[in-house]
Every structure is written in structure tokens, then in C-alpha cells.
């Protein structure tokens, strides 16, 4: 596809790569908002970005390194890259790059899935949820920073294995979800190791096309016992489970019409997120006035395989 | 003491985990940082684990085996005295080996495409010729399971599940990750339903668990 013309999408910042992965020998060729780009190390330090096109390729002036990642804005930045104050706390937290994973679905759906608590029991059985503890307790949805940020606060959930750092046992875990931009979400999770402190897990989505994205992800956590590999296996298990659900979602863009999708996922935060995205004016990856009546294909898929056994 | 060098998202390693579970064997998992660390490609890994740079690797005492074909065959011969997972009968055993080779060769495009789709390697180039090859493998499997004259096969070889089913299932079950939807292969779909109900069955991320609430009454 070609580069989007949506100014709301073009004027935002997106992560396009993990800084240490991009070396002088290995620039990163990728795609952002339908535009092919190449990100490389600049001779004078920092990073450079060039659009790749038939007209030879324009230099992208807005390239920044922050929080270990490389950020690009293809248009004129409407605001600065989001602030994450915990990164300047001079912290005893551990930073982990969780890898990048491509998903053939709207990046907005990945964000929505990230803070949808109702799927934990069925998708992350044994780690983040269990069949016996499917109930989602009450939480509050708030708009902060003059309505530019969406937060779901006071979320709690009984989790058999809330992180790689804890032994397997049911624990009540408390979360706040911060959605500072439509394609970014950060979870602030009460540390089970350092009482009163927060673990951060963040998703920076690179919207590749309307219905495909790359998820860049980090963890900034308290964990002194597990190896990086142990922690990564834990996260990759969870993310691959989410990916399985996401690739079966239909439609692939995020419907924002209130008459749209049957509310299997419509807890308060999903409804608030879709309204907030709608009001942002964003068009890229958004499906407005969709009146389909489809459930996600998940129920159909999981059901018919088992029915085959019974028959 | 059995040790398994493992990566949670490796379909080949999942095959070893499955058979270990079916046989009720205890083991120690040695976790390998395949992604994003590419640990399996390092000189240290080649020197101390396997020169083949692949998973799974099974260690049992002094023995060291690489890859699903060797690992599954060994576990079945060594730890299944009833010899149902790898039958003694010459014809059945040859057919089992044939399907295990199929899992390594014809189904390789599914595994390759899946890993490419997880990373963003196919983003700019597209899946190319690998996708038709992946679909072709699923079609061959579907034709075999559909049988002739309306008699669907319950298992790949004979009347019981064998290591052939384990080897093929491990990759076929995560074909959706590669963009190959199992709904398009109805006999494969039903075979997977039977497989998922075997005692000791475990999932890997990307494989649907058996969700009791979703099972329709017979
Ligand atoms: Fe999830």
C-alpha cells in the first residue's frame, strides 16, 4: 500500500526499532503507515531515517532515540514523544527488550487486547488467569492530562502466575493501564518483589499498514532471581497466546461504531478506548460506521474442533 | 535425568514436550533465548549443546540427540514398553517414519513462514513462494486423513496415535501463526480435535486449549 494521508496518524511518533539492533552495518528497512523507510546510524551520532520511494527518497527530519528505542514521526509532530518518568528515576529496575512481534491485525486491536482483562482466564490459563477466577472486578476509567491520556485504574485480578518472578500460586494483582496515545499502552503493575513499587510493561506499536503492525515491547521490572531468558519465555508464551486470538479477530481494523461488534470484549475500558480513538480523529486502522454482526471467529474455531470429537 | 533444551515458541520443541507429557516423563527444561537473542546460533551453543543450531535437544545421561525425529523415536523406543507410539510392526513403523520425514521436509515451509511472520522479516518482501508450499503440505495431510470412500482416518498410521501424529501435529497446529488457517482443511481440523483430547495433551502458545464450555453436546 502507499503512505497514508491521515494527518492525525502522520503527526504522531512511533517506535520503528530497538536502538541496539540498528548498527552501522545493519540499517533497518521497514514500513510505517504504509511508507517504506530505512533507519540507520547517523555518522554524527544518533539515528537517521529516509523514506524509500520511486522519487528517490526524502529524509525524515523527526527521528529520536528514547527509552532504548528509535522513534519516527513522518509528518509534523503534534506533541512530544510521551513522557515515562520512571525511566529517569535512576532505577533499580531491570530493563528488558521483549523482542518485536509482527501481527497481521490493526495495531489498535493489539492495544485493546492488552488491557482487556476479561480474556485472561481463557487465553492465559495458568499464568495470568484461571477458569476458576474468571470474574473481572470493578475498576475505573479516567481521562488524564486534559483528556489526552486514557487510564484504567484500580484493576485487580487473581493470577496463578503473575510474573516470572513469583512462584506459582494464586495472587491478587493490581494494575493501572495507561494509554497515552492510540498506539501505545503501558501497564503499571504492583511489584510482588518490591512492595509499593511498580513494574512497567509497555507496548509501542509500529502501525505498518491499516491491518498489520509490529509490536515493540519492553519490561522495566523488579526481578533479581530469573535470567533474562526465563523472563522472555514467560512473556513470549503470553504474547503468542494473544497473537492467536488477535489473528482471528474480524474485522481487522478497529470498529468504533457503537452499533458494531457484539460486546464479547466490551468491558468499560474497551468502550472508552474506542470512543477516545473515535474522538481523536484518527482514521488509520479505524473502521467507522461498521454495522457487521460478526462475533470474533474465536468461538466458532474453538467450538467446532471439539464438536468434531463428539460427532 | 532427562534434560530438554527448549524455546517456548518452537514448534519442534513442542513435539518433544508433548511426547514427554504423553509418556508421563519428568524432565528439566533448559531454556534457550532463540528470540530475540539468537542464542542457538552462537558458538557457545554449537560447542556445548548441539552443532546443528536447532531445537529440541534432548539429553539423557550421556546421550545427546538433536531434532524431533531422533528425539521422538528415542523416547518412544526407550520409555514406551507397550510400543504403541512407535509400533514394532515393519509396515507400520515404516509408515510412521515416512510421516515423520514429511513433518521435517514438506511441513518445513510452515515452520519457516511462521517464524518469519512472528518477526517482521516478510513485511516488505511478502511471503513469496513459501505460502503455496505451506498450503500444499496441509492439503496432502488433509487428503490422507480424509481417507478413501468416505472412511476418515482417526490417526495417521494404524488405529492408534503414534509419534507420526505428534510430529505432524506440532507444526500443523500452529499453522495459523503462519497465515494458514486450519478451518480450510476439515479432516485435519477433526483429527486435531481428537488429538487434543488425548490423555496428557498439553498446549503451546498458539494452540487452542480444550475449553469445556465450548464443547457442544453430542
Ligand atoms: Fe493477553
Write a compact overview of the structure shown.
Chain A is α+β, with helices and mostly antiparallel strands. Helices cover 20% and strands 33% of the residues of chain A.
Core attributes:
heterodimer; A: 311 residues; alpha+beta; N-terminal domain of TfIIb; Naphthalene 1,2-dioxygenase Alpha Subunit, Chain A, domain 1; 2 domains; seven-stranded antiparallel sheet; four-stranded antiparallel sheet; 6 helices; 20% helix; disordered C terminus; B: 218 residues; Glutaredoxin; Glutathione S-transferase Yfyf (Class Pi), Chain A, domain 2; four-stranded mixed sheet; 8 helices; 4 strands; binds fe (ii) ion; Cholesterol_7-desaturase (chain A); dioxygenase activity (chain A); 2 iron, 2 sulfur cluster binding (chain A)
Rg over CA atoms of chain B: 17 Å
- Largest interface in this structure: A-B, 45 and 40 residues
| Biggest β-sheet: strands ordered side by side in the sheet of chain B | 2-1-3-4
CATH architecture of the largest domain in chain A: Alpha-Beta Complex
Helix content of chain A: 10-25%
Output the number of helix runs of chain A.
6
Question: Oligomer, anyone?
Answer: heterodimer
Mean pLDDT of chain A: 85
Corresponding CATH superfamily of the largest domain in chain A: Naphthalene 1,2-dioxygenase Alpha Subunit, Chain A, domain 1
Q: Which molecules are bound besides the chains?
A: fe (ii) ion
Can you identify the CATH class of the largest domain in chain A?
Alpha Beta
CATH-defined topology of the largest domain in chain B: Glutathione S-transferase Yfyf (Class Pi), Chain A, domain 2
Amino acid at each position: 500500500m502507499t503512505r497514508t494521508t491521515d494527518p492525525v496518524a502522520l503527526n504522531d511518533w512511533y517506535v520503528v526499532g530497538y536502538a541496539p539492533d540498528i548498527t552501522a552495518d545493519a540499517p533497518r528497512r521497514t514500513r510505517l503507515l504504509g511508507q517504506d523507510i530505512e533507519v540507520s546510524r547517523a555518522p554524527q551520532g544518533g539515528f537517521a531515517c529516509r523514506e524509500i520511494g520511486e522519487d528517490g527518497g526524502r529524509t525524515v527530519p523527526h527521528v529520536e532515540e528514547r527509552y532504548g528505542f528509535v522513534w519516527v514521526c513522518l509528518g509534523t509532530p503534534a506533541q512530544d514523544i510521551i513522557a515515562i518518568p520512571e525511566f529517569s528515576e535512576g532505577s533499580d529496575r531491570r530493563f528488558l527488550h521483549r523482542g518485536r512481534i509482527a501481527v497481521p491485525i490493526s495495531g489498535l486491536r493489539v492495544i485493546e487486547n492488552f488491557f482487556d482483562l476479561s480474556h485472561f482466564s481463557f487465553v492465559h490459563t495458568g499464568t495470568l488467569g484461571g477458569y476458576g477466577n474468571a470474574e473481572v472486578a470493578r475498576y475505573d476509567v479516567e481521562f488524564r492530562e486534559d483528556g489526552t491520556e486514557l487510564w484504567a485504574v484500580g484493576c485487580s485480578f487473581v493470577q496463578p502466575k503473575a510474573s516470572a518472578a513469583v512462584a506459582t500460586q494464586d495472587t491478587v494483582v493490581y494494575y493501572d493501564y495507561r494509554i497515552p496515545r492510540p498506539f501505545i499502552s503501558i501497564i503499571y503493575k504492583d511489584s510482588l518483589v518490591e512492595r509499593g513499587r511498580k513494574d512497567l510493561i509497555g507496548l509501542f506499536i509500529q502501525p505498518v499498514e491499516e491491518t498489520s503492525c509490529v509490536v515493540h515491547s519492553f519490561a522495566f521490572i523488579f526481578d533479581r532471581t530469573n535470567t533474562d531468558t526465563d523472563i522472555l519465555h514467560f512473556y513470549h508464551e503470553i504474547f503468542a497466546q494473544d497473537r492467536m486470538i488477535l489473528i482471528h479477530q474480524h474485522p481487522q481494523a478497529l470498529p468504533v461504531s457503537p452499533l458494531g461488534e457484539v460486546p464479547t470484549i466490551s468491558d468499560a475500558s474497551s468502550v472508552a478506548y474506542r470512543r477516545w480513538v473515535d474522538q481523536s480523529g484518527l482514521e488509520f486502522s479505524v473502521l467507522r460506521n461498521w454495522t457487521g454482526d460478526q462475533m470474533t471467529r474465536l468461538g466458532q474455531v474453538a467450538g467446532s474442533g471439539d464438536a468434531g470429537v463428539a460427532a | 535425568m532427562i534434560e530438554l533444551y527448549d524455546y517456548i515458541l518452537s514448534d519442534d520443541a513442542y513435539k518433544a514436550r508433548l511426547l514427554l507429557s504423553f509418556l508421563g516423563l519428568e524432565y528439566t527444561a533448559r531454556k534457550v533465548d532463540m528470540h530475540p537473542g539468537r542464542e542457538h546460533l552462537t558458538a557457545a551453543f554449537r560447542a556445548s549443546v548441539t552443532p546443528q543450531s536447532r531445537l529440541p535437544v534432548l539429553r539423557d545421561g550421556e546421550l545427546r540427540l538433536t531434532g524431533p525425529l531422533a528425539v521422538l523415536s528415542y523416547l518412544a523406543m526407550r520409555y514406551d514398553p507397550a510400543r504403541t507410539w512407535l509400533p514394532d510392526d515393519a509396515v507400520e513403523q515404516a509408515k510412521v517414519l515416512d510421516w515423520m520425514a514429511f513433518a521435517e521436509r514438506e511441513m518445513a515451509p510452515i515452520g519457516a513462514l511462521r517464524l518469519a511472520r512472528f518477526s517482521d522479516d516478510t513485511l516488505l518482501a511478502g511471503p513469496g513462494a513459501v505460502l503455496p508450499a505451506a498450503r500444499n503440505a496441509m492439503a496432502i495431510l488433509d487428503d490422507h486423513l480424509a481417507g478413501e470412500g468416505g472412511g476418515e482416518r482417526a490417526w495417521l498410521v494404524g488405529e492408534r496415535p503414534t509419534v507420526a501424529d505428534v510430529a505432524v501435529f506440532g507444526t500443523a497446529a500452529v499453522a495459523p501463526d503462519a497465515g494458514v488457517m486450519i478451518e480450510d482443511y476439515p479432516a485435519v481440523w477433526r483429527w486435531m480435535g481428537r488429538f487434543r483430547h488425548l490423555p496428557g495433551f498439553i498446549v503451546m502458545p498458539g494452540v487452542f486449549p480444550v475449553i469445556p464450555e465450548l464443547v457442544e453436546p453430542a
